[in-house]
Amino acid sequence: MASEQSEPVKTICPYCGVGCGIKVQQGDQPGDVRFMPWGEAPVNEGRICIKGGAATEVVDHEDRLTEPLIREGDEFREASWEEAYDRITEEMERISEAYQPDAMGFFGSSKVMNEENYLLQKLARRYGTNNIDNCTRMCHASTVWALRTSLGAGAMTNSMRDLREEADLLWIQGANPGEQHPIANSQYFRQAVLEGATVIQVDPHANKTTRSFEIEDTDRHQHLQLNPGTDIPLLNIVLTTILEKHEDDPDAGWIDEEFIAERTEGFDDLKETLAEFDKEEAAEQCGIPLEEIERAAEKYAKADNAAIFTGMGMSQHACGVDNVQNEINLALITGNLGRAGTGVNPLRGQNNVQGTCDVGAMPNVLPGYQLVDDDEARESVEDVWGFEIPPEPGLTNVEISNAAGSSIHGLYIMGENPVMSEPDANEVRERFEELEFMVVQDIFMTETAEFADVILPATTWAERSGTVTNTDRRVQRMRGVDKVHENTKHDLEILMEIGSRLFDEETFRFEDVEAVFEELRQVCPSYYGMTYELLGEEGLHWPCYEIGDEGDPFLYEDSFDTENGLGQIEGVVHQPPAEVPDDEYPLTLTTARLEEHYNTGTMSRRSPTLNRQHPENFVDVHPNDAERYGIEDGEYVTLKSRRGEITLKAQVTTDIKEGSVWTTPHFAEASANVLTNNVLDERAKIPEYKTAAAEIDVG
Ligand code: SF4
């Protein structure tokens, strides 16, 4: 059936958290969905990276799920939506009666829009459990914890635009925007540097970010290539250097005494923590000459406006909260918060990673980060929803997977692929075998969907409408073209149907996606001042507490959103990774993503343009290690940890330090997460993806 070629619609790239605007156009045949640049898009002004340009390639991919599937033994058979809905509601009712509502877990997704995540968490809570989480647990849970506790909000303090225009120094630690946020890097960070800003990059791996800042004036670019897992010692050297220099010359502007006195607490605690700190020993742990780190400390302290960017190299550790707290300490003692061009700014990985948390798809908070165990907050949401919310925080997603087959018997997954994305993947597979019931909504058959009992075919990003919230808190609208496959459904339609069948129409049936956003506004204070009309084409940076609020490009101008309005300084000490090299596993494995692929590869590996760039996984090995093991560049090797092994190509390079190896999580046939460690940060429950002990077998 031919459809008419339509006017292009303005939407948002489905990949990283930068939130670039693009257009999509429905061609004259169903499935002919074309990418078009959007020249005036607010974030990217028409520029696009390779992923964004290739995003429409997967919309009509031959692997798309087009009909509901129901398991029969080891096979799946096509089923009607009616049969699929009946099976899901029967099983969910059975699990609740046989055990209790907490025997179900729900996974939202940052690939999915605000309205859809909002409705999924509402469904979980109506079902009677707070066991709802999403993949941001895996990337920035520790960042969110530290920022919320010490400053007030788990989000970028500033916006990309004010940083480009006002920052004199960019401190990029554990983030690789050249690879992961290419337009932010090229259009904002590199522009700032070309106009005179200095950049300090702290990363164990030399990468596209490193190379993008290789400019002639080398004194304005420093790469501190530390050993994996030594971010706290490195920042403690920076902090100690600044405190010592201030002692020597109190008028030289090393710290901001007025800011510390008026707007923070805990400075004495920091000084006490660092009183006996041994900088020489710490520099050895980091594997960097002390004077290099001291030089970087001086640059940060002396910059008029210094901005910190933080990524998963900081957050994905068992000490992730402390890693980010130490960045906050640095910003607070130097007064680099509360004005344009400064702050502590997490770079988020997926297009709605901020919004998924904002709308409450987390086990401990309701929409707007209102604590689920706060009676007043819960009651205010209950007044709108019309049902009681369980008061106890639920399990996080790794905890839910760990409990599969013991206290968790059913799993509802929307757009997530935990078999690939969670650490110790072989163990995850074994646990999922033990589940009594699993439903997956997705666009493709994923490694996780293979364990499901019911698979529901969802529409892609290009076919749906709603909102997403990008890395700098900008809420933007997405708009969809016609469905490519008649019998697929939008995630929102599916959730409305299941909620209405399990409970009642009044709570779960909405006229359209905008009506869901209207309800979200009522329960999410920082979104209250936004409507679809006000979002327009530019979007708005939250918070917008009232209609008419224009949103804040930077937070905390007058005070922090903590209980007493003060920024919390808290000294932290080095905690070695849970697994360190030994005789059996003498290497340190660290992991990160590639520009051309996206997380578990579900979409990007089906994109011919992207997959051509990197069709298979590889491991970076330092030349000295390669010589010791007898590894040739391009040779296949077996990379092993205590949890499993994968076979992949070796790339011999000085991009990684001797004693460490580096690989990626995108490739199902050789996934880094077969090797990674399932140890969690105690508070934020984020896994330690970034360090594990490893060994290589050759031949
Ligand atoms: Fe998409 Fe991110 Fe690339 Fe922009 S930078 S086009 S949002 S992947």
UniProtKB/TrEMBL annotation:
Keyword Kinase applies: no
Keywords: 4Fe-4S, Iron, Iron-sulfur, Metal-binding, Oxidoreductase
Domain 4Fe-4S Mo/W bis-MGD-type intervals: 6-63
InterPro entries for this protein: Asp_de-COase-like_dom_sf, Formate_Dh-H_N, Formate_DH_asu, MoPterin_dinucl-bd_dom, Mopterin_OxRdtase, Mopterin_OxRdtase_4Fe-4S_dom, Mopterin_OxRdtase_prok_CS, MopterinOxRdtase_cofactor_BS
CDD domains membership: MopB_Formate-Dh-H
Pfam families reported in the protein's UniProt record: Molybdop_Fe4S4 (PF04879), Molybdopterin (PF00384), Molydop_binding (PF01568)
GO annotation, cellular component aspect: membrane
Coiled coil: none
One GO biological process term: formate metabolic process
Keyword presence, 4Fe-4S: yes
Domain of life: Archaea
GO molecular function, one term: metal ion binding
Enzyme Commission number(s) from the entry: 1.17.1.9
NCBIfam families found in the cross-reference section: Fdh-alpha
Similarity-based family: Belongs to the prokaryotic molybdopterin-containing oxidoreductase family.
Annotated protein name in UniProt: Formate dehydrogenase subunit alpha
Gene transcribed to yield this protein: fdhF
